[in-house]
Please model this.
Amino acid sequence: MFDDFFARALAGGIGVALATGPLGCFMVWRRMAYFGDSIAHSALLGVLLGVVLGIDLNGGIILMCVALALLLLLLQQQRRLATDTLLGILAHGTLALGLVGLSFLQSVRVDLMTYLFGDILAVTGRDLIWIYGGGGAVLVATALIWRPLLAVTVHEELARAEGVRAGLVRIVFTLLIALAVAIAMKIIGLILIVSLLIIPAATARRLALSPEQMALLASAIGAAAVAGGLHGSLAWDTPSGPSIVVAALALFTLCHGGAALASVFFGRVVDSARAEN
Amino acid sequence: MSALRDASADPLTCPPQGVAEEAPLALGRDLVVRYGGRTVLDRVSIEVHRREVVSLIGPNGAGKTTAVRTLLGLIKPDAGVVHHAPGVVVGYVPQRIEPEDLLPLTTRRFLAMAGRRARADIVAVLEEVGAAPLIDRQLSNLSGGEFRRVLLARALLRDPDLLVLDEPIQQVDFAGQLAMHQLIGRLRDRRGCGVLVISHDLHLVLGATDRVVCINGHVCCAGEPEAVSRHPEYISLFGPGAAAALAVYTHDPGHRHDHPIAVAAVDDTPPDSGVDPERAG
Model:
């Protein structure tokens, strides 16, 4: 079934979207979009690490993303620099380091564009195993920490006063983001990864009445964006990764724009109906 | 997560007598907290026993919230000891908390997060705090006062041994203030709960308080409400007017509802006012 490159691309992309939907919701709720972006930017350094250590490049990316995520958690404890400054430094610093480092490796040709923007049409059977194995692990782990993570997200102090181990939950969540980024690299590339996490979740916010609904909707919307983007890419011969993001953006605009139009035409009907629910 | 007490246990059952000899539910001794170079808490000691309402009062910036957060283990003190009795379940109502707009969450679901509780428990506790109509509303659509009631309901749902209320009267209308006093008294008498209440104003907690700790960085004075109100440090902090007003207050507790200042302080959106335009999303 997966002999066809397009079928493999579709299976890989949808797998990533399903795994990242719930995680993306938490990124939206916890205002961590830029945090995820910084981790993604370090992935190129992970490729370098993989080449230098002679291990699987996916393994190198995971190692690097996890290391950077933990470093970020540690640095956030200090008070000298604001978090967004810190994230900006690390995001672009690690990207530049990765680019410079890879330029030294004459023996290995690394296709930069693949890592920056992804190459979903080149997804192999081996990649699919990574995606579904890793994605499944991400989903299971997200489900396991769902209750405490949600409690910490709603109000950290309250959760801690009630006995939730917020520090541990935050570390696990950060590791999951690192894992998700590593898995999504091949599909969409490090520049656009965060959009696949954020846009479906932000779209789902309009439609959801509970956190679980929003997580499921985000997965479904992400999968729809992958399918739509890939078909568009095939039809109009556009780059696949950006086409997926454009499809996600279209869904977002449709959803929020539609709701905004409805509230213009029908007053507050939509919102008050939601409040009643 | 800390273990919830057995939900089948009757919450109104009285604990064994001999309260005075019991170890405190929570104890903070000689707590010192510094932010930067500034000493926010200077050897502050607080303890709360079962079946006791302790009011922590002091002017703005006195370190009341810091003291409570330290006592709850949310801040690590630079010096001093914090100790909780084993297995103490804490219900905490923080002062400043905004419902998260980005997160779709109904009141019912928010309350269910306090522990696995039956629907009937959630309905009952919402009725207890006068917030029953809010059960299916989205948190992002609640007013500040409504949300504080829901927070209180959440703390009560945990069936706490120690209830900590940071400025519980703020943003609550006057009827709500009276109800709050009655509720605090009920919690102490029937559930045998220890209650720690923060207030910037002794008046607001006087109705139901056993012991007052007045702090301003350090502990100024502590003891029974009457004694504290006559203490020179209390008078120098709040002015002689405060003590006089307090005296009037204590002598005429039955007519509290006619107090004009308290009525003017009403700051709550009626529950049926619908969607706040700022928040609708």
In short: The radius of gyration of chain A is 19 Å.
